[in-house]
Amino acid sequence: MATIAAADVRKLVVACDAGMGSSVMLASSVRKQLKGTPIEVEHTPVDHIPHDADVIICHAGLADRARSVVPGRVVVPFQLFIGDPAVTRVVNALKTGGTIDG
Amino acid sequence: MATTYIPTVQGTGVKATIQRIGGHLAGMVMPNIGAFIAWGLITALFIPDGWIPNEKYAALVGPIITYLLPILIGYTGGRLVHGQRGAVIGAVATMGVVVGSDVPMFLGAMIMGPLAAFLLKQIDDRIQDRIREGFEMLVDNFTLGILGAALAVFGVWGVGPVIDNVTNWFGDRVENLVDNHVIPLASIIIEPAKILFLNNAINHGVLGPLGAAEAADKGKSILFMLETNPGPGLGILLAYFLFGPKSLRPTVPAAIIIQFLGGIHEIYFPYVLMKPRLILAAIAGGMSGVAVFEVTGAGLVATPSPGSIFAYLAETPKGGYFGVLAGVIISCAVSMAVASALLGFGRSEQEEEEASDEELAEAQERSRQQKAESKLDAPAAS
Q1: Distance between CA atoms of B266 and B328, rounded to whole angstroms?
Q2: Of A2, A21, A65, the CB nearest to B264
Q3: Longest CA–CA separation in chain A, Å
Q4: Are A68 and B23 within 8 A, CB to CB?
Q5: Is the Cβ–Cβ distance between B61 and B46 less than 8 Å?
Q6: What does the alpha-carbon distance between residue B66 and residue B43 come to, in Å, rounded to a whole number?
Q7: Does B368 score more than 60 pLDDT?
């Protein structure tokens, strides 16, 4: 399992199948929550996750694909598009420090 | 990269592979949906049966679907494989199949675009180091030009006519399905596939291009509505709101707005994945919706994407509102009724609650295992 210290995170990518629908929605909500931090939040198709992404958030159904695109990176799968505890944990860790596993 | 990834023979590996292949198909079409919608709106407005028939503007309809849309797909398909150079040669090669056939060449574009880009990439990779300084631009432009010309001619001569037949064959099969009133059965495959995040692959990779070919012929197509109907998802969410686990109910109204009005269907997939038996509700809703669309002769003029009720209304041809709305409403009612029954109408609320806790723990355990497995698949991950 890959781990990264929250302080080292520069770029967080929210990925979905097409990179046009659900990832855009979740990315904009995460971006709002991370306002004031220097972290860049992007949304991309799961097959085109950039290699400088430090943390990748995507639905559990797409996590295998995300891991195959950027092996070794922290991929955090979630279940719910609204109010998922896994996403909340990532946001909290990024705001208050700590580590992110995935 | 993908080369270090060995798909497991069963389970999620196969799913990921299908998702990826479908994703490539959808990836060629989805960035261009705006152009499809532009075409759909022009068609709905200006053709002789349209809202404001106008011969002059209707002249746009043919060239857009014959040339612009397939070339955009070929261009995008080429770009996915080999960047800007791939995009350009993809467009050139697509022109060959377009001219070499009589039907809208979406399938041909989805083959020729990436194929041309792949061939160019092979050539580029091989000669890159051998080009004498100062000759890069000359060589780059002429490799693309010569290969592009050859592929375009090859497309007119060989590929276009073959794909012509294949497209017609698919079109005939679909027509048979509609004529024999078995098209609602498609929901048995489509609804479960959606929940597994194959929604874009199915709709934009397969149904959309076939639908566009049909719409070019008849002005509308039911194929656009098989996957995109927002009714079944809305029904499931409403059932969840009334009878689902208490802890999840507060999230449902926001999900309804995002799904039904915003058209992002992914939002309801997790609710089905949490209680997999609800897939029966999605199938029942989907089938009844398609049946109503079929009986009323409903169709849309272009892919409603995202699958929002607003996109549905905007792309309904003149005089087609009754069938479209009836199908959406009935599919919603059916999936809500079935989902409510499957949720026990909230009667077994207490048990459900415990069960859902267990399910959550199980799901977490499963995802931990999957994580471990995927590490085995990709040793570089550790």
Answers
A1: 18
A2: A21
A3: 32
A4: no
A5: yes
A6: 13
A7: no
Q: Which phi and psi (to 5°) does residue A44 adopt?
A: -145, 165
- The answer to whether A72 contacts B12, with C-beta atoms less than 8 Å apart, is no
Cα–Cα dist B321/B163, whole Å: 34
For residue B6, name the pLDDT band (cuts at 50, 70, 90).
Answer: very low
Q: Rounded to two decimals, what is the model's pTM?
A: 0.74
Residue B304 phi/psi, 5-degree rounding, is -80, 100
- In the block, tokens 């709305």 appear at B325
Query: Does residue A57 carry a pLDDT above 80?
Result: yes
Contact state of B197 with A81 under an 8 Å Cβ cutoff: no
Q: How far is B126 from chain A (nearest CA, A)?
A: 25
Query: For residue B355, what pLDDT is reported?
Result: 55
Check if A83 contacts B (Cβ < 8 Å).
yes
Domain boundaries, given as residue ranges, for chain B: 184-382
The rounded distance, in Å, linking the Cα atoms of B355 and B359 is: 6
Q: Tokens representing B91? A: 């467009």
CATH number for the segment(s) A13-96: 3.40.50.2300
CB count, 10 Å around CB of B192? 17
- Across the beta sheet with A11-16, what order do the strands follow? A40-45, A11-16, A55-59, A74-78
Cα radius of gyration (chain A): 12
Mean pLDDT (whole number) for B81-87: 93
Question: Chain A: residue nearest B247 by CA?
Answer: A83
Nearest CA in chain A to B81: A48
Question: In the predicted model, what is the mean pLDDT of chain B?
Answer: 83
Higher pLDDT, B294 or B368: B294
Decide: A19 and A62 in contact? Cβ < 8 Å: no
pLDDT band at B68; cut points 50, 70, 90? very high
Cα–Cα distance between B359 and A50 in angstroms, integer? 34
Omega before B304 cis (within 30°)? Answer: no
Spatial separation of the C-alpha atoms in residues A41 and A12, rounded to whole Å: 5
For helices B279-295 and B231-243, angle between their N-to-C axes, nearest 10 degrees:
140
A99-101 and A3-5 strand pairing: antiparallel
| Between B205 and B359, residue with greater pLDDT | B205
Closest Cβ–Cβ partner in B12, B201, B258 for A64: B12
B293 vs B186: CA distance, rounded Å: 13
Catalytic residue among A6, A13, A15, A16: A16
Q: Which of A59, A67, A77 sits opposite B378 (nearest CB)?
A: A67
Q: Which site among A49, A75, A81 would you substitute to test the B interface, given the most B Cβ atoms closer than 10 Å to its Cβ? A: A81
Residues in chain B, overall count? 382
